[in-house]
Amino acid sequence: MTQSHFYVVAVDIGGTKVAGCLVDFGPDESRRPEPGSIVRQPADAQQGSNAVLRRVFAVISEVLRQAGSEQSQNIAGVGVSAAGVVGEDGSIVSATDLIRDWAGTKLRERIMERFGLPAVVIGDVHAHALGESHWGAGRVSNVTLLAAVGTGIGGAVCVGGRLLRGSHGMGGHIGHVSVAAAGTAECSCGRRGHVEPIASGSGIIAEYEQVCAASGRSYAPDVDGRDISRKAVEGEKEAGLVIRTAGMSLGIVLGSLANVVDPDLVILSGSVTAAGDLWWKSLRDGYMQSAMDIAASVPLVRGELGDDAPLIGAAEAFVDTVGARGEKRSVWVEQKR
Ligand SMILES: [Zn+2]
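Above are the sequence and the zinc ion SMILES. Below is the predicted complex in structure-token form.
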């Protein structure tokens, strides 16, 4: 290892777990930064913001403890991917009740105080998109539209490797775009008719239960997305309808957004992208139905980095913001000697 290696402690804070690792930025800047072994703890989300912060501190401490001596001397700081909308100052501006009392948490300040290291905090979907657009499926793309489809639906737009954060840090809320098929379905944001309640993982389950109730089909009380995808493949009418509607509706939204953003690539990530061929076909059909001719030829692909995406993205956000790379990086390495 040469002294031009440097490391960023990356942390990913979600509703169920806090994960962290050391990300290795080697001397070759064209090489993907490598996440080291990952430390995981339960998030304790329902115990509130302070409990989650304690977990975050514990994860960072453990990552620092595991670092070798040469690594420890070359840690540039902490990059954090956090659930919720993150303000310019690295505090949580707004959040769902996934983590109790999360809004208002001065995350960046608390981490800097505790560890005496510079820190950068961005939203989890933004971190995910930054990871994919720099080092994953979007590495050869210039304008990337990303949709993260899991329990909810998030998204981001990256231009030239930079995120469109927006004026309040909320840029990219793809789940909160209206689509006709959603009718008056209530969204997690309190509005009606957004795509999230019919196309997210939890939305697919809720829709399936409703469709089955209407047709009289019985289903297991703990039915999950995987069951519904399997039933759709087996030819069950209700499951097929719900998966088709979910894929098609999200496709229509992405096609409409492509008309605005003019991306050269659309990346889909999150658990719902494993819903199978019917979902992907419906997604592409919806996209083609809505995208104008030029945008219609843009490829829709699956993300490549999986769970590493938010960690690599959070580290990348730190490097982009603090300027640990290139000229500034050599100055930084000099200063550390
Ligand atoms: Zn909404």
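The longest strand covers residues 17-25.
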